Amino acid sequence: MEKSGVQDSKSPSELIDGRIAELGDWRGEMLGRLRALIKEADPDVTEEWKWRGVPVWEDAGMICTGETYKAVVKLTFAKGAALPDPSRLFNSSLEGNTRRAIDFREGDKIDEEALKALVRAAAALNRSKAKR
């Protein structure tokens, strides 16, 4: 574990790079690929590092978080319940009124176009609420 001062001097993007590298397995590869797709979908996205180690992507508000667990990489969309999901990507946290998540397991294929559409829809929703 890095000492606090060293971690504090790194940018959120550098901390996310570090997380991907430290995982060193399929989860790091998956998180890296999901990150790249988020950035492709929304070139204006900013990266944050919150809650002692959770990658967060924002554009006019939170789009999603990227959490890593033993068996899944979870993308949790802050306002997922309000987003159209015609490809039915959301497969976790379905019972809540606000958030929705996608659990990716080892070997899962990513529906890249559907994921990018969700990211763009989340950013658009954030921007529409920010203008009010």
Structural features, described:
This is DUF1801 domain-containing protein. Pfam families: DUF1801. InterPro entries: YdhG-like. Residues 28-122 form the YdhG-like domain. The model is unreliable at 1-5 (pLDDT under 50). The protein has 132 residues and is α+β, with helices and mostly antiparallel strands. The chain has 4 helices and 5 strands. The radius of gyration is 15 Å and the shape is globular. A 5-stranded antiparallel beta sheet has the order 1-2-3-4-5. Helix 2 (12-23) runs antiparallel to helix 3 (26-41) and helix 3 packs across helix 4.
Unreliable runs, pLDDT <50, ≥5 residues? 1-5
> Helical percent range?
25-40%
The pLDDT mean sits at: 92
**DSSP helix count?**
4
How many strands, what sense, and barrel or not for the largest sheet? 5 strands, antiparallel
Rg from Cα? 15 Å
Label the CATH architecture.
Alpha-Beta Complex
Q: The CATH topology is what? A: Aspartate Aminotransferase, domain 1
What amount of the residues lies in strands? 15-25%
Query: Strand order within the widest sheet?
Result: 1-2-3-4-5
Q: Give the ordered list of helices and strands.
A: HHHEEEEEH
- The number of distinct β-strands equals 5
The CATH class turns out to be Alpha Beta
Number of domains: 1
Tell me the span between the first and last alpha carbons: 42 Å
Shape: globular
Content-based structural category: alpha+beta
Pfam families: DUF1801
Domain YdhG-like: 28-122
Organism: Mesorhizobium tamadayense
Protein name: DUF1801 domain-containing protein
